[in-house]
Amino acid sequence: MTHQPAISALSATDPEIAGLVEGEARRQHDKIRLIASENYVSQAVLEATGTVLTNKYSEGYAGKRYYEGQQFIDQVENLAIERAKSLFGVEHANVQPYSGSPANLAAYLAFAKPGDPILGMALPDGGHLTHGWSVSATGKWFTSVRYGVRKDTGRLDLDQVRDLALQHRPKVIFAGGTAIPRTIDFPAFAEIAREVDAVLVADIAHIAGLVAGGAHPSPVGHAQVITTTTHKTLRGPRGAMILSDAEHAKAVDKAVFPGLQGGPHNHTTAAIAVALAEAAKPAFREYAHDIVANAKALAEALTERGFDLVSGGTDNHLLLVDLTGKGIGGKPAAQALDRAGIELNYNTVPFDPRKPFDPSGIRLGTPSITTRGLRPEHQPRIAEWIDRTITAAAAEDEQAIERIAAEIRELLAAFPMPGYAA
Fold this sequence. Notes:
By secondary structure, this protein is of the alpha/beta class. The chain folds into 2 domains: 232 residues, Type I PLP-dependent aspartate aminotransferase-like (Major domain) (Aspartate Aminotransferase, domain 2, 3-Layer(aba) Sandwich), CATH 3.40.640; 131 residues, Aspartate Aminotransferase, domain 1, CATH 3.90.1150.10. It is built from 16 helices and 17 strands. The protein has a 7-stranded mixed beta sheet with strand order 5-11-10-9-8-6-7, with helices on both faces. Helix 5 crosses helix 10. The chain is globular. It starts with a strand and ends with a strand. Its EC number is 2.1.2.1.
């Protein structure tokens, strides 16, 4: 088994790095990868990221560059733009942001000034750092107001969102987050934004693939601006996009360049274009719905084993589990699960009494295992492995953990991994 596409030149030039790449490929092959923000890209996307497009500087936009020699780069970027517009049904797309955080920063730069009030979801309740959390530039540069979830349901408190919006009159409202297991009500957010004359930004980084595949309602027509990464459920390279209506397009483009960035990463732009073409195919639509089916099956199986799921379950790709009742913290649980061949991350849960670096919860997602071909019928066994591992961790039974890792490797041997082949 070796990395695909082949890395023969890398192996000859720098065998140390090549060995680490091969090791990581083997690790990804041998583990059940449940990190909600991760996935496997196709070999075509991998190949696009490693092309000579990385050699070219292209500051500006197609037809308006500051460097010559853009005859092919402009075509690449225009293809990515048109494919994004078609896939999501939007009037404008900017495919240049380097990642999700700069994309969100561009939205602030376009529609707010330092010190302006902004409204976003609190990090402990499922929001993102760039939605105004205190340690982020967005929390330092703007007057950040935060909404959260209801304690009794674990679901988003839209009454609180409206009350805070009316009280603080934010310039920008962010809808979305990184640990939200339920459907986001974009129409309700849009109504609140209209009431206070705020720009609504939908951050769909986690659910972009579900939106593209029709497995989650779209924010298009509700949010004037949409930010997203291009990996996660969308199954593209590590990059980002900003989608918008025509009215807000110019401000978005100026914020990305020259506001925040220099030249775009052309190899990433090409890989984004490839991923968008893949996402437009019927098979991707099936994939998006399969992600949700797997997540629901895993949620049911974990609940049957006594795990406490925040909000009681999931509507999308993501599960947030409070381990308080299991007598173990999220961090030692995640570390034990990694040793057992199950990769996920420890995570704060709403109203968590523990510290963020040693929280009560774990976050799971099904995009990667769905790409590998695992189905709902496999989820009870995954839940069993999770349960057995946490029990073994509490008992400090490393041999039991090693046995689980061997069982997982045996299962996964039957499910090919893109980018790693004989």
